[in-house]
Amino acid sequence: MTEPKPLLSVPEALAFLLAAARPIADTEMLSTLEANGRVLAVAQQSRLDVPPMDNTSMDGYAVRAADCASGHATLRVTQRIPAGHVGQPLEAGCAARIFTGAMVPPGADAVVMQEVCVAGKDGGSDIVTINHAPQSGEWIRRAGEDIKDGSTILEAGTRLRAQELGLAASVGLAQLPVARKLRVAVFFTGDELAMPGEELKPGAIYNSNKFTLRGLLQNLGCDITDFGIVPDTLAATRETLRRAATEHDLIITSGGVSVGEEDHIKPALEAEGRVNMWQIAVKPGKPLAFGEVNRTAQSGQAFFLGLPGNPVSSFVTFLLFVRPFILRLQGVQAVAPKVLTLRADFALAKGDRRNEFLRARINGDGGLDLFPNQSSGVLTSTVWGDGLIDNPPNNAIAKGDLVRFIAFSDLMY
């Protein structure tokens, strides 16, 4: 009798997936305003210093520090410099009224904030008393202090967020080269599935996975084609795989990946392509199929990931395996989420033999509470929780133990 192959560990499965991912090569130029959430295809360099000139970070007076060394100096105010205007060279014994962001005039080497200054008049002339002894460079932002001309500001493979777009705009980049959107086909298996809005017949359930998975894919900026609910037959599953492989980079399914007589994903994948990985030592979500589907009308293959049908299993395996795989296909290198070490404010008497991912939330004391029902069918746990506890195999947790926690906020985008 042949011994069953040992299940892959979570790190082994993830490493296998990431090694197999071939980043898409197609790129396009997008307006920087429209590039939020996209992946940068080519590193970007600045063609100027930021800031481009010495400027003030405070409203106040530009001065020569030596003129104010007494800590109580009265100077003539000879000019006024709003932001966007260029002042004249500052003479000794004089001050310039200056406003945040304005260029510091030649000759000035410090800015004194207006709160320690008293403006006045001497005959018909403006004067200011400086009740402070500034240091040279005080409240001055130097040219190139943030970004040097010629420096790399964004690396290829960066997933662009609001702050990256602002950084690109700060050096004048109106357009950015990005990877094209990943084309993902999805379909769902199960004769028991019904759509919200339809009558729920005896034995039927609503297809929640469609909404969860599509939302997760939208968060990742994918172009999605939905092939709907596919009948539980081998022929229908094979035919949908063939259709989905056309013009798509990745096919994702939910359901039908176990070993029952009505589970057709694995034999269909073997017939239309190949299975590269199947079954992982993870809870929830042991059955997870990875492979490739041959394209009939064109060369090459589409990647395939088959997720479990139970809603929490589908959700968790997407976050753990599909998300990093998609990010790598998009060209992102840093795909690992941030892991926090937090205190368990609960006890788990017995760990599972698989690497378990427990739904938990952060309480008011900074510790973690555990959702009482960790079943793979209890979708309310994913709404109640703030993230997942990564609990190693066979690991019991005592109250007060430190555990690894991954926030949903680090896994959704």
| Total number of domains | 4
Give the class from helix and strand content and strand pairing: alpha+beta
- The number of E-state strands comes to 26
- CATH structural fold name of the largest domain: Molybdenum Cofactor Biosythetic Enzyme, Chain A
CATH architecture of the largest domain: 3-Layer(aba) Sandwich
Distance between the termini: 45 Å
Structural commentary:
By secondary structure, the protein is α+β, with helices and mostly antiparallel strands. It folds into four domains: 10-25 and 180-329, Molybdenum Cofactor Biosythetic Enzyme, Chain A, CATH 3.40.980.10; 27-50 and 145-179, Molybdopterin biosynthesis moea protein, domain 2 (Alpha-Beta Complex); 55-141, Molybdopterin biosynthesis moea protein, domain 3 (Molybdopterin biosynthesis moeA protein, domain 3, Beta Complex), CATH 2.170.190.11; 340-410, Beta Barrel (Beta-clip). Helices cover 18% and strands 30% of the residues. The chain contains seven helices and 26 strands. The protein has helices spanning 10-20, 162-170, 208-219, 234-245, 265-272, 311-329, 380-384; strands at residues 27-31, 44-45, 55-56, 60-63, 73-81, 94-98, 110-113, 117-122, 125-130, 140-141, 152-154, 175-179, 183-189, 193-194, 205-206, 223-230, 250-254, 273-278, 282-283, 289-294, 301-307, 340-343, 355-362, 368-370, 387-391, 402-407. The protein has a six-stranded mixed sheet, with no helix packed on it. A hairpin with a 5-residue loop joins strand 23 and strand 24. Helix 3 (208-219) runs parallel beside helix 6 (311-329). The longest helix has 19 residues, at 311-329. The radius of gyration is 30 Å and the shape is elongated. The chain starts with 9 loop residues before the first helix and ends in a 6-residue tail after the last strand. The model has no long low-confidence stretch (mean pLDDT 94).
